[in-house]
Write a structure and sequence with these properties.
There is one protein chain. With 513 residues, this protein is an alpha+beta fold. Helix content is 24%, strand content 28%. The protein contains seven helices and 28 strands. It has helices spanning 3-17, 41-46, 154-161, 355-394, 403-434, 439-451, 473-479; strands at 28-29, 51-53, 57-59, 67-69, 73-74, 79-85, 96-99, 102-105, 111-115, 121-127, 133-141, 147-149, 172-175, 179-181, 185-191, 200-204, 207-208, 210-215, 218-222, 230-239, 242-243, 247-257, 268-276, 283-288, 294-298, 307-311, 319-326, 334-338. The strands form six sheets. Strands 1, 14, 16, 17, 20, 21, 22, 23, 25 and 27 form a ten-stranded mixed β-sheet that branches. It has a six-stranded antiparallel β-sheet with strand order 5-12-11-10-7-8. Strands 13-15-19-18 form a four-stranded antiparallel β-sheet. Residues 18-48 and 453-511 have low confidence and may be disordered.
């Protein structure tokens, strides 16, 4: 990350962590960011004041309300780095970050390079002028040798870390979100990231994300502001000259949509919370900061709290119907954004002990598995069509120039995507299991996906047996993958069927992403 990009990172973090007024009397977008500005004068003055703490030398304090952007997974004995920002998102130059009593100083961008000690427990903290912790994060070691933040679900992270191949060479991703938004914090878990400033790169849909914290096992970044919404974007990590495997991600936007052009006080209007860009279920947090001006009611007639979490159903109509009640004709401030399907991202720490949130995340991951499985089925169906087309070409007297090459290229692309989907399904399955899912629940999700009907997690029996050692259906799909070879004289393709007529292609409405 160059000095210029680090300056841009500060501006972008301000936009992500800041507050904006989202008000309109038409089609209303619930996404936005605060305008960035110069670092407050009091922050600059405070950075020059220091106090001495036993065992750590001079400590430069930070304003109350400041926060520490760090990854939830650290590696003992390895490098890591964090970013210190004020409550409004401005970086704090010269701030001290104390790691088990050892102080590290942040640079002009608020970034502190750390060396993680070989310990079983770790605390990273920043302090106010009265020597009281303003923000601290405690880590404990797991059986896999990783230090995991206590505000994350240590059991979940420990299970995910087991996916890391021992002999993996170069950067490898074991977890990435299925759906993201522009200008939001995103967490990537894996192995062989550098953990050093300027040496890792997160690329989403060809654009660089701004990394704000890193370790060899995790990256925390702000997604690019210029991301265009839509499904099946590519995500990868580069460390030095090496690149990770590619993962798929849907880029979304959450909007509050209503048709009425003029809203009058005392009236109620039909509206919906719409997720654009993905047919995968999404967990949405809605924050109505103007409850004196407007209120929202769910489809069942239940008033929604000022701050609430909802899960969209997924599908082509990926929205939740709501009723908008206008109390006063004035600007109102409503915000909504996606919540991650895993704890450990700054901003959701308070949900780590909430059993309702735990259940919602479990339901969300079940919905993600169902949609990913349907995408995998669609890919495998198309691979089957390619095999049938190859059989048909063998008996045709003449073949159009380039037909073999076209089939070969398409087959290769589909096979690569099949491998990506299988890896993502494996990650989601482990996450689903770590959240307490049962074997019956997992099989139900796959069976419903195969039948073309979206899963409804709350209807699943809570009395099923825990997941055992059975092989998942996705592993079976991987084992049954047919390798296709296209020789110069014609494709040697055979699945026992020799039909010249291919199935009728699906329409755009029928195709699954």
């Amino acid at each position: 990350m160059t000095p210029l990009s680090r300056l841009l990172a500060t501006v972008l973090v301000v936009q992500v962590l800041g507050i904006c007024n989202c008000s309109s009397w038409a089609l209303t977008s619930l996404q936005g960011g605060a305008n960035s500005g110069p670092m407050p004068v009091n922050t600059l003055l405070l950075a020059n004041k220091k106090f001495t703490d036993v065992g750590s030398g001079e400590i430069t304090p930070v304003p109350v309300g400041s926060t520490l952007l760090s990854t939830p997974v650290l590696v003992p004995g390895q490098a890591a780095w964090v970013t210190v920002v004020t409550g409004s998102g401005h970086s704090i130059a010269g701030a001290s970050v104390v790691v088990n009593g050892v102080a590290y100083t942040a640079d002009l961008s608020g970034i502190a390079a750390l060396q993680i000690p070989q310990v079983d427990k770790l605390t990273i903290a920043i302090f106010d002028p009265n020597k009281k912790p303003v923000f601290e994060r405690k880590y404990v070691i797991t059986s896999g040798g990783m230090l995991i933040s206590e505000d994350a679900d240590t059991h979940v992270f420990a299970k995910i870390s087991e996916l890391i191949a021992v002999k993996a060479v170069g950067p490898a991703i074991v977890y990435s979100p299925v759906s993201i938004e522009a200008r939001q914090l995103v967490l990537i878990l894996g192995k062989n990231f550098s953990g050093r400033l300027d040496e890792d790169q997160l690329v989403i849909d060809g654009l660089d994300a701004i990394i704000v914290a890193g370790s060899p096992a995790a990256l925390l970044a702000v997604t690019p502001s210029r991301l265009s919404i839509g499904p099946v974007r590519e995500l990868l990590v580069r460390s030095g000259d090496e690149s990770s495997d590619i993962r798929e991600v849907d880029v979304c936007r959450v909007e509050l949509v209503y048709k009425d052009k003029s809203l009058e006080p005392g009236q109620k209007y039909r509206a919906r919370l719409q997720v654009l860009g993905s047919n995968i279920p999404c967990l949405v947090e809605v924050d109505n900061r103007s409850s004196d001006a407007v209120s929202l009611t769910g489809a069942d007639g239940t008033p929604l709290p000022a701050k609430t979490r909802l899960m969209t159903p997924g599908g082509e109509q990926n929205y939740l119907p709501v009723e908008l009640s206008v109390k006063a004709k004035t600007n109102f401030d409503v915000d909504a954004h996606l919540l991650p399907d895993i704890l450990g991202v700054p901003g959701v720490e308070g949900y780590s002990s909430d059993p309702k949130h735990h259940q919602m995340v479990k339901d969300l991951v079940g919905g993600e598995i169902g949609r990913l499985k349907r995408r995998l089925i669609n890919v495998e169906n198309r691979l089957g069509q390619i095999r049938e087309r190859g059989n048909a070409l063998q008996s045709e007297p003449s073949v159009l120039p380039g037909e073999y090459e076209r089939l070969s290229i398409e087959q290769k692309n589909l096979s690569n995507r099949q491998a990506r989907l299988l890896a993502m399904l494996k990650s989601c399955r482990v996450l689903f299991e770590a959240l307490g899912a049962t074997d019956e629940e997992f099989r139900h999700v796959l069976e419903v996906a195969g039948g073309g009907v979206m899963v409804t997690p709350p209807t699943i029996s809570p009395n099923a047996l825990p997941i055992g050692s059975e092989k998942a259906a996705v592993e079976k799909a991987a084992a049954e993958q047919v390798k296709v070879t296209l020789p110069a004289g014609g494709p040697a393709l055979s699945d026992g069927v020799n039909r010249k007529e291919l199935p009728k292609p699906k329409s755009a409405e029928e195709m699954e992403w």
